[in-house]
Write a structure and sequence with these properties.
Strand content: 5-15%
Helix content: 40-55%
Order of helices and strands: HEHEHHEHHEHEHHEHHEHEHHH
Structural class: alpha/beta
Number of helices: 15
Number of strands: 8
Cofactor: Mg(2+)
Catalytic activity: L-histidyl-[protein] + phosphoenolpyruvate = N(pros)-phospho-L-histidyl-[protein] + pyruvate
Largest sheet: 8 strands, parallel, barrel
EC number: 2.7.3.9
Protein name: Phosphoenolpyruvate-protein phosphotransferase
GO cellular component, one term: cytoplasm
Bound molecules: phosphoenolpyruvate, magnesium ion
Length: 325
């Protein structure tokens, strides 16, 4: 039985009619990559590097970061590892950086905004990521992108550091794919423009829901309003996937929605390419996918985006799972 369980765990994720999708794991440290590999993930869809920064009492230097990213890449043995540059600010404080007190931290100085403001820190991180690319399949992901200017600046810094390392004689991958988190509605709305330039999108529903619905993801008082089945969120998700495909790019999702088996038929119907989640959620989502027919899911997705409320979407999904179509 153990052998059978093991075998099913490592079977590639696919729908009943054979549509393959990639299942990634979300990790917060290089050691987590071991769990990710053991859980049958096809790769790491999100390496949240900020934990590396939060555990230290000062900014980790280039070598320290390089060792962590390299270890993750090696543990995944050639499977892709998407490394997100530091997503500090918002709910994630760093005592040694003494970030300013803000009235609205989630709307303030966070993530790529800090990276582009303190460019030397971002350059150090990008060098570490580029050096790790010599030891596996490493991709760079920029968080909280709200406009094309931020993306272009971040991408240029990556290119500059990549080229510099090569000039210095460091072994680096020939090419390092770069993408953006889609977690701010403006990025989703301009997905068609971004799609021409990025290698991939990763939809962060945790923040995308917060910003689309104006519902603080940390505030219990408004928690009932926080719902990724809201039709407005679904429209944005679909838009991003369609825009990426129109340019021959791929879209992943690394927010909590990807790990919800009830969302699986909807996301399969939208054509989502890669799903990244906590390692523990992988077996359930794989099992849910294996029962689905991709054609029926496409019809379901069309019906769902046309509904008016999250409750209606949820009811439709529950009905779909119950009767299988
Ligand atoms: C997200 O916003 O969905 C996401 C994956 O990023 P984080 O939860 O780290 O903000
Ligand atoms: Mg986020």
């Amino acid at each position: 039985r153990l052998a059978a369980e093991r075998e099913s765990r490592f079977r590639p994720a696919a729908s009943a009619d054979g549509r393959r999708v990639e299942i990634g794991a979300n990790i917060g440290s290089a050691a987590d990559a071991e769990t990710a590999a053991d859980s049958g993930a096809d790769g790491v869809g999100l390496f949240r590097t900020e934990f590396l920064f939060m555990q230290a009492d000062r900014l980790p230097d280039e070598d320290e970061q390089y060792r962590a990213y390299r270890e993750a890449a090696e543990r995944m043995g050639g499977r892709p590892v998407v490394i997100r540059t530091m997503d500090i600010g918002g709910d994630k404080a760093l005592p040694y950086l003494r970030l300013p007190e803000e009235a609205n931290p989630f709307l303030g100085y966070r993530a790529i905004r800090i990276g582009l403001d303190r460019e030397e820190w971002l350059r150090v991180q990008l060098r570490a990521i580029a050096r790790a690319s010599a030891h596996g399949t490493v991709k760079a992901l920029f968080p909280m992108i709200s406009g094309l200017g931020e993306w272009r600046r971040a991408k240029r810094l990556l290119e500059e550091e990549h080229a510099r390392l090569r000039d210095e004689g460091h072994p680096v991958a020939e090419r390092i794919e770069a993408g953006i988190m889609v977690e701010v509605p403006s990025a989703a709305l301009l997905a068609d423009r971004f799609a021409r330039e990025v290698d991939f999108f990763s939809i962060g529903t945790n923040d995308l829901v917060q910003y689309t619905l104006a519902v603080d993801r940390m505030n219990e008082k408004v928690a009932p309003l926080y719902d990724y089945f809201h039709p407005a969120v679904l429209q944005l998700v679909r838009r991003v996937i369609d825009a990426s495909h129109a340019c021959g790019k791929w879209t992943g999702m690394c927010g909590g929605m990807a790990g919800d088996p009830l969302a699986a038929p909807l996301l399969l119907g939208f054509g989502l390419d890669e799903w990244s989640m906590e390692a523990g959620a992988i077996p359930k989502v794989k099992a849910a996918l294996s029962r689905l027919d991709s054609g029926r899911c496409r019809e379901l997705a069309d019906r769902a985006v046309a509904l008016d409320t999250p409750e209606e979407v949820r009811a439709e999904l529950e009905r779909f799972v119950r009767v299988g179509g």
